[in-house]
Amino acid sequence: MSVFWLVLIVFAIAAVAYVLSRARAMKSAEGDSRKLHSLPHFYAANGALSAAVPALLVLAIWLLAQPSVINSSVARVIPDHVLEQSGSLDLVMSDVRRVADGLDEAVRQGAMTNAEADDVRAGLTDVRRRLGDVGVALGSDVRPEVLYAAQRYRALNSTGALLRNIVVILIALVGFVLSYSRTHKDFRARNVVEKGIKVLLMAAASLAILTTVGIVLSMLFETVNFFKLHNWRDFFFGTTWAPNFRGDSELSILPLLWGTLYISIIALLVAVPIGLFAAIYLSEYAGPKVRAFAKPLLEILAGIPTIVYGLFALLTVGPLLLNIFGAEGLLGVGWMGGATSVLTAGIVMGIMLIPFVSSLSDDIINSVPQSMRDGSLGLGATKSETIRQVVIPAALPGIVGAILLAASRAIGETMIVVMGAGAIAKFSLNPLETMTTITTRIVSQLTGDGDFSSPETLVAFALGLTLFVLTLGLNVLALYIVRKYREQYE
Amino acid sequence: MTDASIPKASTLLRPDARTKKRNASEARFRFYGMVAIGIGLTMLLVLMFTILTKGVGAFQQTFITLQVELLENKLDKTGARDLELIKKVSTFGYAPLIAGGFNKVVADTGIQTTLKPKDQSGILSKSAPAQLRDYVLNDPDQIGKTIEFEFLANSRVDGYLKGRVTRESIANDKNISVEQLDFVDQLKQAGVLKKRFNMDFILGADASDQRPEAAGMGVAMAGSFFMMLVVLALALPIGVAASIYLEEFAAKNWITDIIEVNISNLAAVPSIVFGILGLAVFINYMHLPQSAPLVGGLVLTLMTLPTIIISTRASLKAVPPSIRDAALGLGASKMQSVFHHVLPLAAPGILTGTIIGLAQALGETAPLLLIGMIGFIASNAPGGISEGLLSPNSAMPAQIYEWAKRADPAFYERAWGGIIILLVFLVTMNTIAVILRRRFERRW
């Protein structure tokens, strides 16, 4: 019985509870709903919620916890010499899971019976060939210990599922019976139901915290694993990025950080002047018609998916720059070897950030009190003098906040740099060379069949955590500055 | 006192040098602003123009119509129309039939060509025999008859008709020769070879990197659809519930503060970080199937939640307190006032925010790369809901990325075309959001 059916059964119990609780409440009031403490549907809802919510909650926790419980219990049956041979527990466990999945598949296709799958011994039959017959390809021969562990894994999984179904349905029934027995005309159903709903609402709100915790924990664990395998000094202070999947790689973040910052700086050099002047024009000069026309159009640029910008960088801007700076280009200087470069990614990212800078700055400039402008204009300043000497200085903290937010966007941007910036990590000042960034390396280290016990794959989590801390820091700083500034005028 | 001691009269009618300078600077400043807006709008224009000019070609494809005789002695030697036996004839068995089709065309139209039969078939897609085989397997009764069949032309031929491939550019191309292009010209004059609208690009599946002419967006579209289904089913109720709590019930204390700061920060976390979370939690820990739209949907749900919460809170806030007071005054509980009065009034705003959040999720690529929604060819559209959620699939933006990575420039055209499809979806969603807002938004 799959989880889907289990959920459906719980809902069915809840529906029955809804109907029966309502009937019982009405009966206790002798069919006169005025004698009830609450409206009849509150009694019904109380029944349904008591049946469904605890059961589903337990189901969710069970689903989250079962993998790790089973993993640790199966890991215990794997003898030490197997661990030593293959180097790490993760590798053995992924083998175990693959074999277990293969057995499942074989049973599903009818190539083995369930009992057979539980009894096959590696010495007697060629498990690899038999699984190959049903379309499950295994990389190497199945060792007896792994096969045994896989069978145990299957057994535990099916017991776990059975136990889960029983427990969940039992909890649903208990909830139903309890709420049903409490249903009476004097029972304060509305208060109970509303309290319950409030708890559910609160749980939804705390999901945001759970997500953050999940992000931090998932990356922190793997980062710790990474630093067990790789020297942290080399990661933070080394100067070479040269992953090598045979091991012994140099994995240092500095060249990646340089590429990231360089591209972000170019992007900001494009986006900040254009965005800022656009915001000034829109908020101070433009009439309502121009504003109503230009502002939404500019904001379309922010709504375009980044994959579009990436393609634009790869196929349009890159070749264009190559035609100007390349060996056979307009200038004939040969400064550029290929279409991907820091400048390519930077310019396109800058275009993407224009509306970001302009709409944030627009809001901030608009919130500068009109009295300050009137004062300056009344003293005889021209409009541009007012803007430069009064409005901008007053709005400066907010504008700095907007720029910081844009910078955090630029640092975390992925698709444009994956497609436009290149893959070679180096320290260079030449914007026409290809360079690589933190996000690009995360993508390249985590796509493909990396195994999650090698430092070359795990480094992506350390990079991700660094990226998270970096962008979070910029955001917090920016929000702090913006908020502080807003308080001044409110 | 002489007149000389009076400074040169500066009148308002004749501006002095300094005023002129200040006015010039004013004009310059204003001009900079206009230039900035101009640059921004030009970029938008250039972007749209590039997408349209480069992508429109993908919706057109070159087809060659041939009279093919489905010889019984090749396809079904026993004549029993036994499907299992017919299936035994591989695509190689169909190649001679296609060559026969070319022979007939050459004979009928009187084309002069020195090409060998094999090279004549070379202007077709590599999937041509498979196309024919699928047709026969679907309808074995056609064996023995002569049918008119429309074959996909090779991507080089297609590019030649669209101007991407020229006689000069194929000098070093093993896949096509100048003689073949001459042959193509003759076929075109004879009306055998035609360019027409290609529905398969919109509805079909992706193809291997040898056959750009057969690649389509349809299956990836289904993948995106199922992901959006998951996002809608999870993000909307959770987002609305969270917003109601924060806006209507939460006490002003440090826990609420933490939640609020958290949500505003989550909105600015780079999307790739959500991909790492998805990989670590959903795939490595919970062992949900890799590349499944369900996992993609879960990741995108976490990503769009902050957006939905922020816009929902704004629309809840816009409902005036008098509505709540009136409900409370008539004896409703706090919960009833919210669910019976505030929420329905805020619904249009919530819906608008949700659609915009969905549009954002639809175009997101980076997290999908990490959970493995690229790098393979999803060849069949999913059959049902559970298959759609759990079997490996791609998504529209991931498919576009996949095409952009391939070496053959014919795929670039597909990528631009894919972007047109993606943008059509986004524009539609945003238009619906704008219309909803215009129609139902109430100013209190």
Automatic annotation (TrEMBL), chain A:
One GO molecular function term? Answer: phosphate transmembrane transporter activity
Q: Which GO terms describe its cellular component?
A: plasma membrane
Q: Which CDD domains match?
A: TM_PBP2
SUPFAM superfamilies xref list: MetI-like
The UniProt entry lists the main location of this chain as: membrane
> How the protein sits in the membrane?
Multi-pass membrane protein
Transmembrane stretches in the record are 6-21, 42-65, 161-178, 199-221, 256-280, 300-322, 334-357, 390-411, 458-482
Which residue numbers delimit the ABC transmembrane type-1 domain?
A: 257-478
Keywords, comma-separated and alphabetical: Cell inner membrane, Cell membrane, Membrane, Phosphate transport, Transmembrane, Transmembrane helix, Transport
Q: Where in the cell is it found?
A: Cell inner membrane; Cell membrane
Alphabetical GO biological process terms: phosphate ion transport
Q: What does this protein do?
A: Part of the binding-protein-dependent transport system for phosphate; probably responsible for the translocation of the substrate across the membrane.
- Give the protein's recorded name: Phosphate transport system permease protein
Species: Thalassovita taeanensis
UniProtKB/TrEMBL annotation, chain B:
Keyword GTP-binding set for record? no
Q: Which residues form the ABC transmembrane type-1 domain?
A: 221-433
Q: Which CDD domains match?
A: TM_PBP2 (cd06261)
What GO CC terms are in its UniProt record?
A: plasma membrane
Keywords from UniProt, A to Z, are: Cell membrane, Membrane, Transmembrane, Transmembrane helix, Transport
**Record-level GO BP terms:** phosphate ion transmembrane transport
Leader peptide range in chain numbering: none
Its annotated compartments are: Cell inner membrane; Cell membrane
Q: Name one GO molecular function term.
A: phosphate transmembrane transporter activity
Q: Which domain of life is it from?
A: Bacteria
According to Swiss-Prot or TrEMBL, what is its membrane topology? Multi-pass membrane protein
Q: Which family does it belong to?
A: Belongs to the binding-protein-dependent transport system permease family. CysTW subfamily.
Recorded hits in NCBIfam families, A to Z, give:
3a0107s02c
Query: What name does UniProt use for this protein?
Result: Phosphate transport system permease protein PstA
Native source species: Thalassovita taeanensis
